[in-house]
C-alpha cells in the first residue's frame, strides 16, 4: 500500500520538459511511481485536479539557522512550497563555533541579518560546538530539509580567536581551517560561505574579510576534494568590484573544480547597463568552463520599517541608524529632544532638501486616513518637512507606525523577467529568515509565478519550476532532490498555477519574546510534502511531521 | 576562450600597504605620485572608516575605470561602513 497517492495532477517534473497529466505514488519517503494511472491503494489520496504537481521548491539563500532551532517549519517558508533551504550563507553559520564565541557570532547575525537577540538567546539551548553536533541537533527536529553551509567567519574565529578580525592567517592557521572545513563537509555541510562586505555590530569588518586570497584558495582546495559550493557576498553596489569578484570566483572554480555562487545581483534603473556587463562576464567565464552562478531574487527591493528597530533603510543615514538602536524609552525621549530632533532632521534634509524621506509611504498607522499617503504630500499639507513628520508621527503613535520605501531597485518586470529567464542566472537570494524587521523575505517563489509566468510571460511554467527545483539541486549538487523521478526523495509541492502568488506583507509579533517581523502568507499553494510526509496543506495547515533531513551534496 | 579586457585589479598580500602595492604595480612612477594614482582608482576604500583602510580580501584596482559606472543601488559606496 502506498503512503500517498496524488491523482490527476499536471506533473511538472523540474527538468524543464513539458507538463503531463498523471498520478504520483509515494512510499517510504520516496517517489514510487511518477505518471500513469495508479491503481494501488494508498493511506492518503490527494486529488490534484486543476493543479500543478511539482518538486518541492529549494531556497538557496536563507538565514534560518537560528529560527529552525525554535521553529521546525521555518514559517512561513514551508507553506509557500519550500521544502529545502540552504542556510549558513554570507560567512555566518552557527557551527563550528566554540561556546566563548557565541556572543560574537550573535552580534554579527544581529547586525548583518537584522535578527533580534531574542532569536538566539533564550529561544533555544546551544548544544553544540562542532558542525557534526550542530547537524545532530537538527536531525529529527525539522519539518523541511536543510542544506547547511559552513561560515568562513566562525571557521576563522575557531582557529584564530579574536585575531580572526584583525589579521591574515598564518600557514599553520590556514591548515587548521582546512582540517576544520573538512570536518564540516564530512558532517554534511554543502559548502563554504564568505563575505566581502559585511560588518559586525561595531561596524567593523567580519572575520572573513581579513582573509587573503591564498586563504580562500586553500579552503577552496578542500571544497574541491568534495566538489562542494563556495558562496560569496560581493560588493553588490559596485559593478567593477563585482566583475573582479566574478573573475576571482572563476579562477577558484577552474582551479579546484568547484561550483561558486554570488548573491545578490540586482537590476537597477539607476545603472541599466551594469547588470548586462556582469552577465556578459559571467557568460565568458562559463564558456571557459568555470561555474560562477549569480543569484537573482524575484521580488523588488522594498524596505518597510518603524523607528523602533534599526533598519537597513537608514544605512545611508548613520545618525538615524544609530539612534534606532537605543532602548525604546530612550529612543522616544531622544525623538522629543529639540537638539536631537534638529540634528536628525538636518542630517536627513541638508540645506532644506526634503528628498530623502518624501517618497516614503505610510503602510500601517492607527489613523487609517494616513495609510498609503506619502510623507512628502502629508508634509506639504501640514506645512512641515518629511523628516520632521516621520519623527512626529512616530512619537504620536508610540513608534507603532510603519513606513514603506517601495521599489528601491529591481522593480521593473520587463527588465527583471528576461534576467530571471537567463540560463546562467540562479534564481535565489531570498534572504529568507533575515532582515525580518525590514521586509518579508517569503513568497519569492509565488511572485516568480504570478509576475513572470502569468503576468509577464517571461518564463513558461515548466521553466519557472525548473529554476527553483531541478536547476537549484543541480547547481548545488543536492542528491535526490529537485526532480520528480522514480526513486528520488518525495518532496512535492502542489499548487494552483492560476492563483499562486505571494500574499500581502504584514507585520506580526510571533518572534521569541513577542518580537515583530514582516511575513507574507502563501496564496495558491495547496499541499506540501517533505520526504513523503504531509507537512502543510491549505486545508489543514501545518502538521506535526518532522521528516526534514540534512540534504546532502 | 579569450576573455574580454576588464579593469585590472589585484588582491593585497599579507603586510601590504599603499606604498608596497604602488611599488609593485607602478614601479616606473615616483612613489608619492604612484600612491596618489592608486588611491584615486580605489575611492570605494575611502567611503569607510578609517578612510583608505583595506583588509586582506579587498579588491585593489590598478587602473582607472574602463567605463563610467553608477551605483547599482541608492546606497553609499560601502553601505556598511566597513
Short description:
With 553 residues, chain A is an alpha/beta fold. In chain A, 33% of the residues lie in helices and 21% in strands. With 82 residues, chain B is mostly helical.
Task: Explain the overall architecture.
- The complex is a heterodimer of chains A (553) and B (82).
- Chain A is α/β, with parallel strands linked by helices and 553 residues long.
- Chain A has 2 domains: 346 residues, Metal-dependent hydrolases (TIM Barrel), CATH 3.20.20; 103 residues, no CATH class.
- Helix content of chain A is 33%, strand content 21%.
- In chain A, helix 5 packs parallel to helix 6.
- The longest helix of chain A is centred in the middle third of the chain and has 18 residues.
- Chain A is globular.
- Chain B has a domain of 53 residues.
- Chain B is 22% helix and 5% strand.
- In chain B, strands 1-2 form a two-stranded antiparallel ribbon.
- In chain B, helix 1 packs across helix 2.
- The longest helix of chain B has 10 residues.
- The C terminus of chain B is likely disordered.
- The chains are: A alpha/beta (553), B mainly alpha (82).
Task: Give keywords.
heterodimer, A: 553 residues, alpha/beta, TIM Barrel, 2 domains, 9-stranded mixed β-sheet, 8-stranded parallel β-sheet, 22 strands, B: 82 residues, mainly alpha, two-stranded antiparallel ribbon, 2 helices, 2 strands, 5% strand, globular, disordered C terminus
Main sheet strand line-up of chain B: 1-2
Label the overall shape of chain B.
globular
List SSEs of chain B in N-to-C order: EHHE
Fill in the CATH topology of the largest domain in chain A. TIM Barrel
Number of strands of chain A: 22
Q: Please summarize the sheet with the most strands of chain A.
A: 9 strands, mixed
**Helix content estimate of chain A:** 25-40%
The portion of residues assigned to helices of chain B is: 10-25%
The number of helical runs of chain A is: 18
Q: Would you tell me the structural class of the helices and strands of chain A?
A: alpha/beta
Give the second-level CATH assignment, the architecture of the largest domain in chain A: Alpha-Beta Barrel
Low-confidence stretches of chain A: none
CATH class of the largest domain in chain A: Alpha Beta
Structural class per helix/strand content of chain B? mainly alpha
| CA-atom Rg of chain B in angstroms | 14 Å
The total count of helices of chain B amounts to 2
Radius of gyration of chain A: 24 Å
Biggest sheet character of chain B: 2 strands, antiparallel
Amino acid at each position: 500500500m502506498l503512503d500517498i497517492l496524488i491523482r490527476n495532477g499536471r506533473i511538472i517534473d523540474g527538468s524543464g520538459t513539458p507538463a503531463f497529466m498523471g498520478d504520483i505514488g509515494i512510499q517510504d519517503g520516496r517517489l514510487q511511481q511518477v505518471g500513469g494511472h495508479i491503481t494501488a491503494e494508498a493511506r492518503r489520496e490527494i486529488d490534484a485536479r486543476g493543479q500543478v504537481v511539482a518538486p518541492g521548491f529549494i531556497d538557496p539563500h536563507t538565514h534560518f539557522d537560528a529560527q529552525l532551532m525554535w521553529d521546525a517549519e521555518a514559517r512561513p517558508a514551508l507553506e509557500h512550497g519550500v521544502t529545502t533551504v540552504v542556510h549558513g550563507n554570507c560567512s555566518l553559520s552557527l557551527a563550528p563555533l566554540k561556546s566563548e564565541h557565541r556572543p560574537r557570532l550573535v552580534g554579527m547575525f544581529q547586525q548583518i541579518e537584522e535578527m533580534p537577540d531574542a532569536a538566539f538567546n533564550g529561544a533555544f539551548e546551544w548544544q553544540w560546538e562542532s558542525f557534526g553536533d550542530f547537524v545532530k541537533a537538527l536531525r529529527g527536529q525539522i519539518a523541511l530539509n536543510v542544506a547547511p553551509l559552513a561560515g568562513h567567519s566562525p571557521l576563522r574565529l575557531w582557529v584564530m580567536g579574536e585575531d580572526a578580525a584583525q589579521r591574515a592567517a598564518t600557514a599553520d592557521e590556514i591548515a587548521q581551517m582546512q582540517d576544520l572545513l573538512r570536518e564540516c563537509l564530512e558532517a554534511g555541510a554543502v559548502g563554504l560561505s564568505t563575505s566581502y562586505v559585511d560588518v559586525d555590530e561595531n561596524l567593523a569588518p567580519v572575520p572573513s574579510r581579513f582573509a587573503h586570497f591564498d586563504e580562500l584558495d586553500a579552503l577552496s582546495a578542500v571544497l574541491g576534494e568534495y566538489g562542494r559550493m563556495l558562496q560569496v557576498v560581493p560588493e553588490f553596489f559596485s559593478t567593477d568590484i563585482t566583475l573582479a569578484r566574478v573573475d576571482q570566483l572563476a579562477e577558484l572554480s577552474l582551479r579546484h573544480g568547484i561550483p561558486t555562487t554570488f548573491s545578490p545581483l540586482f537590476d537597477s534603473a539607476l545603472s541599466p547597463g551594469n547588470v548586462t556587463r556582469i552577465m556578459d562576464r559571467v557568460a565568458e567565464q562559463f564558456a571557459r568552463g568555470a561555474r560562477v552562478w549569480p543569484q537573482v531574487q524575484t521580488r523588488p527591493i522594498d524596505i518597510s520599517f518603524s523607528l523602533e528597530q534599526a533598519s537597513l533603510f537608514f544605512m545611508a543615514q548613520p545618525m538615524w541608524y544609530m539612534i534606532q538602536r537605543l532602548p525604546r524609552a530612550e529612543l522616544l525621549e531622544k525623538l522629543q529632544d529639540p537638539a536631537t530632533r534638529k540634528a536628525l532632521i538636518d542630517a536627513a534634509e541638508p540645506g532644506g532638501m526634503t528628498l530623502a524621506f518624501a517618497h516614503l509611504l505610510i503602510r500601517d498607522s492607527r489613523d487609517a486616513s494616513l495609510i498609503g499617503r506619502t510623507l512628502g504630500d502629508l508634509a506639504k499639507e501640514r506645512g512641515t518637512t518629511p523628516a520632521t513628520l516621520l519623527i512626529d508621527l512616530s512619537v504620536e503613535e508610540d513608534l507603532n507606525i510603519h513606513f514603506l520605501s517601495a521599489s528601491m531597485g529591481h522593480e521593473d518586470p520587463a527588465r527583471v523577467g528576461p534576467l530571471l529567464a537567463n540560463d546562467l542566472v540562479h534564481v535565489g537570494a531570498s534572504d529568507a529568515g533575515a532582515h525580518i524587521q525590514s521586509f518579508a523575505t517569503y513568497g519569492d517563489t509565488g511572485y516568480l509565478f504570478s509576475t513572470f509566468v502569468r503576468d509577464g510571460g517571461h518564463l513558461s511554467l515548466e521553466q519557472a519550476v525548473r529554476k527553483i527545483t531541478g536547476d537549484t539541486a543541480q547547481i548545488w549538487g543536492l542528491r535526490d532532490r529537485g526532480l520528480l523521478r522514480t526513486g528520488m526523495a518525495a518532496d512535492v509541492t502542489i499548487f494552483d498555477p492560476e492563483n499562486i502568488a505571494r500574499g500581502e506583507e504584514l507585520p506580526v509579533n510571533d518572534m521569541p519574546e513577542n518580537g515583530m517581523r514582516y511575513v507574507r502568507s502563501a496564496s495558491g499553494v495547496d499541499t506540501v510534502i517533505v520526504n513523503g510526509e504531509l507537512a502543510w496543506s491549505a486545508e489543514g495547515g501545518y502538521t506535526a511531521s518532522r521528516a526534514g533531513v540534512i540534504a546532502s551534496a | 576562450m579569450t576573455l574580454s579586457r576588464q579593469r585590472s585589479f589585484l588582491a593585497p598580500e599579507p603586510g601590504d600597504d599603499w606604498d608596497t602595492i604602488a611599488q609593485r604595480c607602478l614601479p616606473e612612477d615616483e612613489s608619492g605620485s604612484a600612491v596618489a594614482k592608486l588611491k584615486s582608482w580605489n575611492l570605494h576604500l575611502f567611503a569607510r572608516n578609517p578612510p583608505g583602510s583595506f583588509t586582506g580580501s579587498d579588491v585593489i584596482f590598478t587602473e582607472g575605470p574602463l567605463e563610467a559606472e553608477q551605483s547599482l543601488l541608492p546606497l553609499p559606496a560601502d553601505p556598511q561602513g566597513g
